[in-house]
Write a structure and sequence with these properties.
It contains 11 helices and 7 strands. With 357 residues, the chain is an alpha/beta fold. Belongs to the methyltransferase superfamily. Type-7 methyltransferase family.
Length: 357
């Protein structure tokens, strides 16, 4: 459970796949489109051949689509307009779709838009590590991914530690020491993410992040995603009490993600020192037209992002039962967190002096 290699969204294109259960993430990408366009207009400078004739974009944590294709189209549309408005020849576009090696790349590439205007490549690997040659990327995009950790804080799975997260699968309801352990691990991982991106991005290149976050000053207990994971943990404990699974297996299971506040993110970026924060804006709250469909849609989303973790640890046999219980508990959880979702768009620009170093 401390391995990064089991983090992948549910593959395929079936009823429980990430492909068909990522509408909330899709809406956040849509809300960020105007900010992406503004970022490119202000900060991307057209290249002059023969210096370079290929504009390179990487989407990190791409999963299986279709959201990654929408995000890429939003970026390239804005870049093409930038070139046209400055009377430069539009370059070739190379797009790298990157995720863990166990990501369902087959589904991803089978669903590539047939009329795309870019060359597509898959890059397996963790975005916490170096993935690309030096100074090869112009834009890095990462949506709904940076909250995933490279590993679990080791002390929360150590029975001899006072931070042992017994009976919980995440940090809400687990005490400040567990929250702090998650926070420290996220700070380490995010700083490493910035370090390796600083090597891969060209001078003046950009990182665009869309992420679920926690408003400054808001307790973790009022953050919707951790609260939902707390409810999922209660479902697993219910199964343990019924004897369906071993309680020790629940004690050893923790979801490796942390939801930062803007203040926490800004602190890590400033301490890292490699990028300037050019933009940090909250996105509109996600609107769901049919309120009655929320429990089912939320359950589908959480299942799509945690199913592989649960299957790896407990086996696939419990999936339907645990998520059946989870959907029942969601109604109560939503009454507590309704309207509190908070998504953030961040634009980071590589400092010139960092690149020269």
């Amino acid at each position: 459970m401390d391995s990064i290699n089991v983090i992948a969204m549910a593959g395929g294109d079936g009823i429980q796949s990430y492909t068909n259960n990522s509408s909330f993430q899709k809406m956040a990408i849509g809300y960020a489109k105007s900010l992406i366009q503004k970022s490119i207009v202000e900060y991307i400078q057209p290249m002059n051949p023969p210096t370079s004739v290929t504009f390179r974009v990487a989407d990190l944590g791409c999963s299986v689509g279709p959201n990654t294709f929408i995000a890429v189209d939003n970026i390239l549309e804005a870049v093409k307009l930038k070139y046209l408005n400055t009377n430069h020849e539009i370059p070739d576009f190379q797009v790298y779709f990157s995720d863990h090696a166990i990501n369902d790349f087959n589904t991803l590439f089978k669903s590539l838009p047939p009329n795309r205007e870019y060359y597509a490549s898959g890059v397996p690997g963790s975005f916490h590590t170096r993935l690309f040659p030096r100074a090869s990327l112009h834009i890095v995009h990462c949506s709904y991914s940076i909250h995933w950790l490279s590993q679990l804080p080791r002390e929360i799975t150590d029975k001899n530690s006072r931070v042992w997260n017994k009976g919980k699968i995440h940090y809400v309801g687990a005490g400040e020491e567990v929250i702090n352990a998650y926070s420290r691990q996220h700070a380490i991982d995010f700083s490493k993410f910035l370090d390796v991106r600083a090597q891969e991005i060209v001078p003046g290149g950009l990182i665009m992040l869309i992420l679920p976050a926690r408003p400054n000053g808001v307790p973790h207990s009022q953050d919707p995603f951790p609260v939902l994971l707390e409810q999922l943990g209660e479902c697993l404990m219910d199964l343990a009490r019924k004897g369906v699974i071993d309680e020790e297996k629940v004690d050893a299971f923790n979801v490796p993600c942390y939801f930062s506040s803007p203040q926490e993110l800004e602190q890590v970026i400033n301490q890292n020192g490699r990028f300037n924060i050019e933009m940090m804006e909250s996105l509109p709250k996600i609107k769901v037209p049919n309120i009655s469909s929320i429990p089912q849609r939320v359950c589908g989303t959480i299942r799509a992002v945690t199913e592989e973790l649960i299957k790896e640890h407990f086996g696939r046999e419990i999936l339907d039962e645990v998520f059946g219980l989870f959907q029942e508990k969601i109604v109560k959880a939503l009454e507590h967190i309704r309207g509190s979702d908070f998504n953030l768009f961040m634009l980071l620009k590589l400092k010139e002096e960092t690149y020269l170093d």
